[in-house]
Amino acid sequence: MNPDYKKYTLIELYDVRENIDKELYPERFELLIKEINLREQNPEKEPEPSKLDDKDKVSILKVIMGGCAIYFLWALINAFINDTIRSKSGYLYHLSEQPQGFYTVVFFHVVFVIVSLYIVFKDLGKKNT
Predict the structure, then answer these.
(1) Residue 103 burial class via C-beta count within 10 angstroms: exposed 0-12, middle 13-18, buried 19 and up
(2) Distance (Å, rounded) from C-alpha 93 to C-alpha 105?
(3) DSSP class of residue 127?
(4) Domain ranges of the chain
(5) pLDDT of the residue at 128
(6) Nearest C-alpha neighbor of 7 from the set 40, 35, 37
(7) What pLDDT does residue 19 have?
(8) Are 12 and 3 spatial neighbours (Cβ–Cβ below 8 Å)?
(9) Residues in Cβ contact with 84 at an 8 Å cutoff, skipping those fewer than 6 apart
(10) Under 8 Å between Cβ of 33 and 73
């Protein structure tokens, strides 16, 4: 089964040409060269590059924010189990030695978890249209 090179942009075709194994896939390489020559002679046959719609962008954002929420929740759980938490700069705050620093970092972790979970779940009750 050969790829449908008609769906590729000319830039993508050039990239495939640079990376294809000509000896392993001689038929594909021949089809690729034909498509490149056709496109170079007829630029109006160039397909539009695929773009993400807003729904896809929101889905990607939700996945990323969900992962971040899990990470920061894990950091918070570890902070209270071990009585230590690491700041962004890498400094390790101990609850018994630096409670103000410890709770400050915990506060920012909690805020980030809340914001992340809000972004992930804010459209949960809405109907898709």
Answers:
(1) middle
(2) 8
(3) P
(4) 5-45, 54-121
(5) 57
(6) 35
(7) 92
(8) no
(9) 92, 93, 94, 95, 102
(10) no
Which of 122, 22, 32, 16 has the alpha carbon at shortest distance from 69?
122
pTM: 0.57
Residues 6+ apart with CB under 8 A from 56: none
Q: For position 1, what pLDDT does the model report?
A: 73
What tokens does 8 get? Answer: 């590729």
* pLDDT, tens only, 94-113: 999 999 999 999 999 999 99
Tokens 């969900």 -> residue? 66
Class of residue 32 by CB neighbours under 10 A (exposed 0-12, middle 13-18, buried 19+): buried
Measure the CA–CA gap between 6 and 98, rounded to whole angstroms: 63
CA–CA distances in Å: residue 122 to residues 62, 109, 118:
10, 19, 5
Label each residue of 27-42 as H, E or C. HHHHHHHHHHHHHHHC
Tokens (6 digits) for 15:
């990239």
